[in-house]
Design brief:
The chain is α+β, with helices and mostly antiparallel strands. The protein contains 10 helices and 13 strands. Bound molecules: 2,5-anhydro-1,6-di-O-phosphono-D-mannitol and magnesium ion (MG).
Amino acid sequence: MYSQVITLNEFIIERQADFPYAKGELTRLLSHMGLAAKVVNREVNKAGLVDILGKAGDINVQGETQQKLDVFANEKFILALKGSAECCGIASEENSEIIKFDTELAKNGKYIVAIDPLDGSSNIDVNVSIGTIFSIFRRLSPVGHTATEEDFLQEGARQVASGYIIYGSSTMMVYTTGRGVNGFTLDSSIGEFCLSHPDVKTPQNGTIYSINEGNYIKFPRGVKKYLKYCQKKDPQTKRPFTSRYIGSLVADFHRNLLIGGVFIYPKTDSSPKGKLRLLYEANPMAFIIEQAGGMATDGDGGRIMDIKPSDIHERVPLYIGSRNMVQKALEFMKENK
Ligand code: AHM
Ligand code: MG
């Protein structure tokens, strides 16, 4: 049976019409992200062959040094974004400073990108899902010059697009430009991301909570109490909830987005800002969850996307997912200060 397949590129070109003044720059940028994702996906799929193909640092048959996968992913996304000619700079988890492109073409790019090229990298060696997370802003500095740090220190509410790629049992790209959330699954037989999850909406209520309970002793009182609430039997609210934690933000987030749940990475006494990074982990996911009808806060009631960053690698506590679950967790936080 023939059914109409919409590829990522067709979809983003079609969607350009949603922005009457758009000149196709964001479209090109997003399609370059999709291309780099395919290259990284190919390498991720080979990760299990490391004993055959060689470890990071080894020389392969072509005389090239094998790279660590996160370094490889970082390079591929940087190359793709530089080549897109729409992006003038990048902030990456892999680089302590921002990367300012200095070619004439790139200096004329209107956008900057914050990226975690390979999130959940501790899961690579054990064949568990990993991902890429990205966030796109319009630059503040004048076009024609190199990017500045201020370009990256904007509130998440000013993102023009964000997304993630999950390298899992299938590879998907999920993104938003502020007009809903759409997901594309990579069909490796044709090498294209195809629209598989149009207009994703996350359930208002879920039955999954995702948190690293190994850190329980260090959690704020409100989180401890919320966890007890999740575990308490109450058929009316479908409790006890199910605990699911992969340790790859992209994979935990993706599951909860589709079937409903809450993901929490709270602050602790030893990490007063939590672990996750605002620019390339919390903000892009917050944009997606809000567009899907969910919610993202820092646990003190502040909206993630309202935070004005002061450092490109700053961390933030993250409570994200189904609206009613996040709100309930916040209630516990407020009552147990
Ligand atoms: P990474 O960017 O170094 O991979 O760390 C981020 C990851 C997230 O994907 C995940 O949610 C979290 O760290 C897991 O941390 P922990 O092992 O402390 O639970
Ligand atoms: Mg990360």
